[in-house]
Amino acid sequence: MAANWKEVRPLHEWIVVKADPRVKKSTGGIHLPDGQVRAERVMEGTGRILKMGDAEETYKVCAFRLEVGMRICYRGFLKDAWKDYFQREDDCDIFFIKAPDVLAVLDDTTQMGLCS
Predict the structure, then answer these.
(1) What is the rounded CA–CA span in Å between residue 4 and residue 20?
(2) Dihedral of CA 1/14/72/112: which sign?
(3) Parent domain of 13
(4) Distance between CA atoms of 56 and 66, rounded to whole angstroms?
(5) One-character DSSP codes across 54-76
(6) Structural domain tally of the chain?
(7) Strand, helix or coil at 62?
(8) What is the pLDDT of residue 33?
(9) In sequence order, what are the residues at sequence separation of 6 or more whose Cβ sits closer than 8 angstroms to the Cβ of residue 57?
């Protein structure tokens, strides 16, 4: 049974992230096969920080001040270990990652790969 992410308090440099929805059509209108969408999920992902552990520990390991609500890019394959731990929300995965696995902070208009 999946847990509710709102009832969990991450510790140390752990972060709870909600993945951005994946699109199955390119900006040019080409429908992408499921295999391509799955392959890209392995390489990278984007999402929003829902909860964080200790802000100071997070800063020490990634040298950037992360905050709840920030949109981030993370190493995509990592979420697979936790993808069934939390209940899905809005058809999006919610999972744990560690702060060092955050690759970039993104603004809302930035598109990466197949993320919407």
Answers:
(1) 18
(2) negative
(3) 7-21+29-106
(4) 10
(5) -HHHHHHHHSS---TT-EEEEEG
(6) 1
(7) helix
(8) 60
(9) 12, 13, 99
